[in-house]
Write a structure and sequence with these properties.
Fumarase C, Chain B, domain 1; Fumarase C, Chain A, domain 2; two-stranded antiparallel sheet; 14 helices; elongated
Length: about 375
């Protein structure tokens, strides 16, 4: 039995962790998806340490060389992971230490804790995923608007309690969904903006005595600002709860659209014809055309977002009012303008993040080619 733990955090421990402890606490299956963000965060952190003179150019260069090698392994899906290292963050740090030696690699964690490291990776990943959702949502809204165009006078029944209520147009029905999704766009952009603050440099909970430059790190990672209060930065999780809430509301709206497609495509309603490519049949009833994809959309991810199920019930009412073709066209144009504004907002955020990532990568390559950080205006 070793005289002390070999863990990065094992300074005061006399023995290695029990296997059952490691098996229960390791999180690689969950946080492996943040490998790219962890490497980007480490690159920015090391560049800042070099720029501030906390690490030498030689130390920065050797650490960046190993991080670049790790990045290539991650992209090729060839990175060897050890569950004994608990998570992707410590696996990557051990990769650097093995490649550069403890003399260099051990300094990667200077002025940084796993607390602010993990929160930073999570926010970087959340921003990326939110932008993906926003872009997909814009594509859906554009498709709905395109389908609605020219159907301002195509009459269909509006329903309350699944009973005929008022006559409406197909365009009015479809743009009603676009209007709801516009609010989802606004909510997701709002969540993005609240997540767009850099917690790196907060360390365990109260900062560090090293002369770090948190604003430089934030710029290299494409954050709009620094998360000023260190204790709040590492201790709060409301941003993720807010993101889940916004996604749950979005799911309720998508579920309602899918449910109406299922209902309206039945023989009894006969108002919607779904593509053969997006439906399935029956092995013994050849007349059937099953809207399986739309049915899956009704309940997709509901189990993961079930904490808002009582609120989702409020969104299930299919109450479609009436309006004339001119008013529907006017709403169509207004919704298109709102969508365009949301798209521009998402594109600006995406461009800032992409530019920051490219800038960090360019600085990394500059250092790896033997360049000095002192000569750069970061």
């Amino acid at each position: 039995m070793p005289k002390s733990s070999t863990k990065l955090w094992g300074g005061r421990f006399a023995v290695e962790p029990a296997a059952v402890f490691l098996d229960y606490s390791q999180s690689l299956a969950t946080d492996l998806r943040m490998a790219a963000e962890d490497i980007w965060g480490s690159q920015a952190h090391v560049l800042m340490l070099g720029k501030q003179g906390i690490l030498t150019d030689a130390e920065v260069r050797e650490i960046l060389r190993c991080l670049e090698e790790a990045r290539k392994h991650v992209e090729a899906d060839t990175l060897t992971l050890d569950p004994a290292d608990e998570d992707i963050h410590m696996n990557l740090e051990q990769f650097v230490i093995r490649g550069a030696g403890a003399e260099f690699g051990g300094k990667l964690h200077t002025a940084r804790s796993r607390n602010d490291q993990v929160v930073t990776d999570s926010r970087l990943h959340l921003r990326h995923r939110l932008l993906d959702v926003l872009e997909a949502l814009s594509d859906l809204q554009q498709a709905l608007l395109h389908r609605a165009e020219g159907h301002e006078r195509t009459v269909m029944p509006g329903y309350t309690h699944t009973q005929h209520a008022q006559p409406i147009s197909v365009a009015f029905w479809l743009t009603g969904h676009v209007a709801a999704l516009n609010r989802d766009q606004a909510r997701l952009l709002s969540v993005f903006d609240r997540a767009d603050a850099c917690p790196l440099g907060s360390c365990a909970l109260a900062g560090t005595s090293f002369p770090t430059d948190r604003r430089l790190t934030a710029r290299l990672l494409g954050f709009a600002r620094v998360e000023e209060h260190a204790l709040d930065a590492v201790g709060s999780r409301d941003i993720y709860l807010e993101a889940l809430s916004a996604l749950a509301i979005l799911h309720a709206h998508l579920s309602r659209l899918c449910e109406e497609l299922v209902l309206f495509s039945t023989y009894e309603f006969g108002m919607v014809e779904l593509s053969d490519a997006l439906t399935s049949g029956s092995s013994i009833m050849p007349q059937k055309k099953n809207p399986c994809l739309a049915e899956l959309g009704v309940e997709a991810r509901a189990s993961e977002l079930g904490f808002l199920d009582p609120l989702k019930c409020l969104e299930r009412q299919r109450s479609l009012g009436s309006t004339g073709p001119r008013e529907t066209k006017r709403m169509h144009r207004a919704l298109a303008r709102q969508l365009a504004a949301h798209q521009k907002g998402a594109a600006r955020r995406r461009e800032r993040v992409t530019t920051a990532r490219a800038r960090t990568a360019a600085v990394v390559q500059h250092v790896l080619r033997g360049g000095s950080l002192a000569s750069l205006d970061l």
